[in-house]
Amino acid sequence: MMVQFGVDKAFEILAAAAKIPKTKEVATKLKEAKINGWLSHGSRPDAIFEAMKLNQKIDNFFDSPQFTTWAAFLKAVNEKNKNKKSISELDVFKKFYEEDDLLKLLSSADNIDNPRTQKYLDELATGWLDQPMHPQSVFNKLKLDEAVDDLLTKPWLSNWVEYMKKFNEQYPFAQTSMIKTFTKSYGDEKLAVMLQAATKGSDAYTARIAKNLQQAQFKQWMIGKLNPDDVYKTVLKLDSTSSPKADIWRAFYNAYDTAFPGQLFSFKP
Known about the structure:
Layout: H1 2-5, H2 7-18, H3 21-40, H4 45-51, H5 65-80, H6 89-96, H7 99-106, H8 115-130, H9 135-141, H10 157-170, H11 178-186, H12 188-199, H13 204-223, H14 228-235, H15 246-259
Helix pairs in contact: 2-3, 3-5, 4-6, 8-10, 11-12, 11-13, 12-13
């Protein structure tokens, strides 16, 4: 079967046969026999990875018969060689995928919610911390810088936040914040518009996060010596208080008035 169909296709056939009661036992035994054969011949995990064509595009990658068979083989290899350093799945992936290509694979719709994706991200993050890689670079690597509108609902944002916290703990001299990173990626105006819209969203959790980030942005503006006039004219570039963006300015005005009570400006909400 392996010769006729190729290793990768043969295991697709065995996987299909394992779902049929009449052929399940035979299919399972054939799969186990092949894995044991690889073990007895000293086959390398990377060689079997390539033979399974896991270095090529496969739909539902982590649920595919090719991957599950290879993962079972790798586990068997590590169990057989307990006196040696174990080989991780990620170790093998890195031989065939550049990091950006691996992240692209993990972020696909088929794979992003798979538990292995989280496991690989955790392992990658450990390596990034050891380098160390700045959170801004990791933010860009995870493609979080590409679109601001849905940033707060992106699946990998929480991974990045966790990475940023660990980075700040280990490298306090180079620490950063969410609002600094977001501002550098999107600019003040785009970020402000997104946060304002998110504060009005139907999801209470996201709205609360957006409100906190908006307050952080306002604080950043104040630290930068921006007053409501500056925000009105140079940040939001408003020409009328009837503009949808004027609500951002009004919110900032109120925050500024609370921080610096009694100061007068040319415009009022």
